[in-house]
Amino acid sequence: MSLKNYTPFLTTWIAPMMVLLGINLAFLSPAYLDGDILDQDDIKLGYAKSKETRDYRDQTGEEALWTNAMFSGMPTTQISTEYGGNLFEYISAIVRTIGGRTSSTYIIFYLMIAAFIGLRGMGVHHWLSAIGGFAYGYSGFFIIGYAAGHNAKVNTAAFIPLMILALLLILEKKNWRAFILMSLFAGLSIHRNHFQITYYAALFMGVIWLTYLIKYAKDKALPEFGKYTALLVLAGVLAIGPNIANIWSTKVYTEESMRGGKSELTQKNQNQGEGGLSFEYAMSWSAGIYETVALVIPDAAGGGMKVDYDTKGTETYEQLVRAFRQQGMSPTQAGAQASQYMGGAFMKWTGESMGNGAYYVGASIFFLFCLAFFTVGGTIRQWVIASITVFCFMGWGSNLEWFNTLLFNYLPLYNKFRVPSMAMVVLFFLVPFYGLLGLQHWLGMEKKARFEALWRGTALFAGFLLVFGLLAPYLMDLETARDAQFAQQGFPIDQLVGDRRGLITASATRSLVMGLAVGVALYLWHIEKLKQLAAFTIISIVALVDLWSFNRDQLETDDFLSKRQWEVQYGPNKANQQILQDTDPHFRVWNATTGLTNDSYTSYHHKNIGGYHGAKLQRYQDLIDNQLNKQNMACFNMLNAKWFITQGQNGQLQAQRNFQACGNAWAVSN
Predict the structure, then answer these.
(1) pTM value?
(2) Are the beta carbons of 79 and 48 closer than 8 angstroms?
(3) Whole-angstrom distance, CA of residue 267 vs CA of residue 159
(4) Mean pLDDT over each residue of the chain, to the nearest integer
(5) Is the dihedral of CA 273, 279, 280, 284 positive or negative?
(6) Where are the domains of the chain?
(7) In DSSP terms, which residues pair with 272 in a beta bridge?
(8) Within 10 Å of residue 610's Cβ, how many Cβ atoms?
C-alpha cells in the first residue's frame, strides 16, 4: 500500500500530536532530555510513606495490605496497593513511557491528546483541535496541580474529554457503538484512583444526560433514549468490573476513615459528619465568587505565591525588596521572598482556593468561548450553560452555602469530599472544548451571519473584561482584615489597595489584548486578508504565548532535580542514623520537631507515630486530637514510642531514647 494512502492520517492526526508532544518536550525539557525529576511536594510525601510497602513488594512479589510506616499502622488501601489482572493497568503502563522513559511528563501530554481526540471526534479541524488540546493541558489548574504533585487528580482529568466525546457520540450523533469507548475511558478514569474527579465527571455527564432527556422527550423519542441509556449503564458496569477490587476496598476503608468512619472512643470531632465529613471541613478551600474571574483575569484575586511580581510595578513589592535587601539578602533572594509575601498575604484579597496562582484558562481561549455562544446553539449550548452554572455553584462551596448545603445533605457521596473548588475542573474542559467547537461552526457560517457572530462574541468578551477587570476594581472594597496589621508594619492601606487595583486592571488589559488579537486574526480571515492556515497560526501563537507565559511562573525548569539530588532528600540525618542502629525491630518513633499529621519523611526510615494522609483512620485521628496533640506521654508510651526526634540547643536534630515506652506487647494493670 502506498504511503499516499496514509497521508490524511499522518497530516490530520499524527502531525498535530507530534506538535503537542514537541510543546510538552520544550516546557518539561529537563525531564525529557536529562531524565530529571520534578520536585513535587505531594509525590515526595507519597514516596516516603509508601517505602515500606514498595520494599515488601520488591522483596516478595506480594502485596502488603497493612503498613507500619505511619500513624502506628494503617491499611495500604490509599497508599500503595496494586491490584493484579486489571486490564486498565496494562493500557496505562504503555502511555507512561511516552518520551522514551517512564516519567510523569506523560500526564500533561495525556491531557492534550485527550482534548485533541475529543474535538476531532466532534468534527473539529485538526489544527484547531490541537489548539484546544494545548489549552486544556496547559490550563493553570493542571499545571499548578502537576507542579504540586497532584498527579492522580491531573491524570484522571484527562479522561473527561474522552468520556464526554463518547457520551455525545451516543446521544448527539446516535452512534450506539460508542458505548465501547465509554466503558474504556470510564474504566481508565476509575483506575487512575482519584474518585473525586471521576465523581465530578459523572455529575457532568448527568447534566448532559438530563438535557438530552428533555430533548428526546420533546421529540417523542423516549424509547430510543431509553436504549441509549441502557448502553450507558452497560458501559458503566464494564468500566467498574476490572476496578472492583480497588472500589470495594476503598468503600470498606472509607467506613473506618475520616471520610465516613466513626470512633466509639470519643464524641464526633469537628471534621466528622454523619457518614462523611462535616460541612465546614468539606467546604475547605472553597473558591471565592470573584476569585472565579481569575480564570480569565489571572491577577483578579491578587495572584499567588508562585507569581513573579517583579514586573508588576507595585510599590508594595519594591518596599518588600528593600526590606529584605537590608536584611542581607541578595537581589534574587529578596525578589523571590517578596513575591511570596505578595502572593501569600499582601495582594491576596479574596478567596482561599488559588494559593499558588490563578486557575487561568487563557483569555485567548475565553474569546473563542464567548464566540461559541453565537455559533453553537441547541442542546449543546443548553448543557454548556447548565454545566457552567452548576459547577460554578459547587466550586463556590461555603460562599454559596444554601446551594451546597442542599447537595451536601441530599446528593449521594457529596459529603465524602473536600476542596469544592475542584469542581471547576468541568469549566477548565468546557472553555476550550466549546470555544474550539464554536470556532469550527463559525468557519462554516455564511459571511453575514459570521460577521454578526464575531462582533457579538467580541462584545461579550470585551464587556466581561471591562466590567470585571476595569470597572469593578474601582467599585469594590479591596481591603482585607489583615490590612490594619500591615499598616502597623509600615505598609499604608491606601498603597495596598492601590496596588491591588493596579494588578487587576493591568491583568485585565493583558487579557483584553490577548483575546482581541484572536478576534483580529479571525476578522482578517473573514475579509479575506489572511488565509485560513495563517489565521490558525496566529491564534496558535497567541494561545501559546498567553498560557506559556503564565504557566512558566508556576513550573520553572529550576523546579527539576537530578536523580542524585532526588535521592539525597531521603538520606538519613544523624538522628535517623542513631535510631537505625537499634536492632530491636519492634518500636515506633515520634518526630517531635514537626506536626503529627504532616510528617511523611520519618515514615521513610521508621515506624512512625505520625504521618501524612488525607483519609487516615478515624479512631487514630481521635487519638491524635484527644491525646497525642496534648502530648500525653502515657499515650506515647502505650504506642511504644521508644525514640523521639528532637531539636538540640544547636538547632541540630537529635535522637532521644524514651525508657518509659511500654514495648511491643503489654498488659493493663488497672
Answers:
(1) 0.95
(2) no
(3) 41
(4) 93
(5) positive
(6) 305-346, 574-657
(7) 277
(8) 23
